[in-house]
Design a protein that fits this description.
By secondary structure, the protein is of the alpha+beta class. The chain has 12 helices and 13 strands. The two termini are 44 Å apart.
Length: 446
């Protein structure tokens, strides 16, 4: 039996559950007898242990299980009878005052809110669009060439030439010895032998690279270097050191020519440059489309949050904060970080969790109201789209359809896309062209 539902706050409710103590005792006795049939104890054959000994060994746990089951069942029945949509789990507390022969518990819980989505036809949403031009293809080819760079001793004639005058220049790979002093005293980290880096990549401080440019093998140079105030080495941050560097080895970078062999190295069997460029363009367009979708989805989600009135259950925010904290812990552990004693306060994730929960409730309402569920055809089409970038698309299909969890992830993506398309079809939409580099530098998250 349950009392009438009491409203404590916007979404918080409470009800009192009562049931006869005799019901609990009867169920405990029944379970003890069942346990006794298989119970073991020294000096007794299995199933012949006295009931008192079984009760002493298992009674507390069985009683606890019976109470939990009875309270849970009573709460669910009360929630159904009152038409309550319970968010999260209730907080159950035993009441000291109860009628004779009865047990009483207070159940405090939150309910799902009413989600009131505003008029989408009055919502302004700016979407983005981007194209892949020959310039982007050329840039990608340059990156691929640099990934396949190999070095030759500068000034020595070889198959690819001599690299020009044997003087250190940007793009060259150098090997140096260096030593730094502050007020005439060497400092930790200020000395190295056979240290290699590529000039112009920014691995070293600008003064260090500038001093290296123009040196020949065997030459040395002493120069002042001012460490920035925010330099990671606190002992030298904001101080000026005198460095002496000696160039020991100098190599120039040979980038492969964009020819048939280069195309073959990228998987183009016949070495066709045209096919290579077409393949690169297709891959870039796939990535651009994914980024555009993500940016536009973010714009839609922002609009939905602004136009929707609702209270968010704190219990759901707390639960999602805990999930995010645990995910972060696992991610850091997988990267090799020691997180054993590292704190992960859930409040750090509360803002993100609140947005996720809010959007989840909004999307559920939109899907239910407008029949936007993912269809089997849409899910299959999405997986086939994923499979395009793999050598064996059939294996990709098997991979997803073999695991219900993976399939569920695809269904969630399709459902989100259905919501985005629905909202864009209702709202006032304007489109803005964005540069390729700007788009690829963004990482929107809903």
């Amino acid at each position: 039996m349950a009392t009438a539902v009491e409203t404590l706050d916007k979404l918080e409710r409470r009800l009192t559950i009562t049931f006869p103590l005799s019901d609990v005792r009867s169920e405990v006795e029944k379970r003890l007898k069942k346990q006794a049939k298989t119970a073991k104890a020294p000096g007794f054959r299995p199933g012949k242990v006295p009931l008192k000994m079984v009760a002493a060994q298992y009674g507390y746990q069985i009683e606890s299980d019976v109470l939990n089951d009875r309270v849970g069942r009573a709460f669910n029945e009360a929630a159904n009878e009152n038409g309550l949509r319970v968010a999260g789990f209730p907080k159950i507390e035993a009441k000291e005052e109860a009628a004779e022969g009865m047990l009483a518990f207070d159940a405090t819980f939150e309910v799902f809110p009413d989600v009131v989505i505003g008029d989408l036809s009055n919502v302004d949403i700016e979407t983005v669009a981007a194209d892949v031009s020959d310039a982007e293809i050329d840039k990608t080819i340059d990156i691929l060439r640099k990934q396949r760079v190999h070095y030759h001793t500068k000034g020595e004639a070889g198959e690819h030439g001599d690299g020009g005058e044997p003087v250190a220049a940007n793009g060259d790979r150098v090997t140096v010895d260096f030593v730094g002093v502050i007020d005439g005293v060497e400092f930790d980290g200020g000395k190295a032998e056979d240290y290699g880096f590529v000039l112009g990549e920014g691995r070293m401080l600008p003064e260090f690279e500038a001093a290296t440019v123009g040196l020949k093998v065997g030459e040395s140079k002493t120069f002042p270097l001012a460490f920035p105030e925010d330099y990671h080495g606190k002992d030298v941050a904001g101080k000026t050191a005198d460095f002496t560097i000696t160039l020991k080895n100098l190599e120039w970078a040979h980038l492969p020519a964009v020819d048939e062999e280069f195309a073959k190295s990228l998987g183009i069997e016949d070495g066709s440059i045209e096919k290579m460029r077409a393949d690169i363009k297709m891959n870039l367009e796939r990535e651009v489309n994914a980024r555009v979708k993500a940016r536009n989805k973010e714009a839609v989600m922002d609009a939905l949050v602004k136009v929707t009135e609702m209270d968010v259950p704190t219990v759901m925010i707390q639960q999602d904060s805990e999930r995010l904290a645990e995910q972060t812990r696992q991610d850091m552990a997988q990267r090799g970080m020691d997180v054993k004693n590292m704190p992960f306060p859930t409040e750090l994730f509360a803002e993100k969790a609140e947005r996720r929960v809010r959007l989840g409730l909004i999307l559920s309402q939109l899907v239910a109201d407008n029949n936007l569920q993912a269809t089997q055809e849409q899910v299959k089409a999405q997986i086939e789209d994923f499979a395009q970038s793999y050598e064996d698309p059939k294996e990709v299909l098997k991979y997803y359809y073999a695991d219900r969890r993976r399939l569920g992830e695809v269904e969630a993506l399709v459902l989100e896309e259905n919501v985005v398309n629905y909202v864009l079809g209702k709202a006032k939409v304007s489109s803005k062209a964005v540069a390729f580099d700007e788009l690829m530098g963004s990482n929107p998250q809903a």
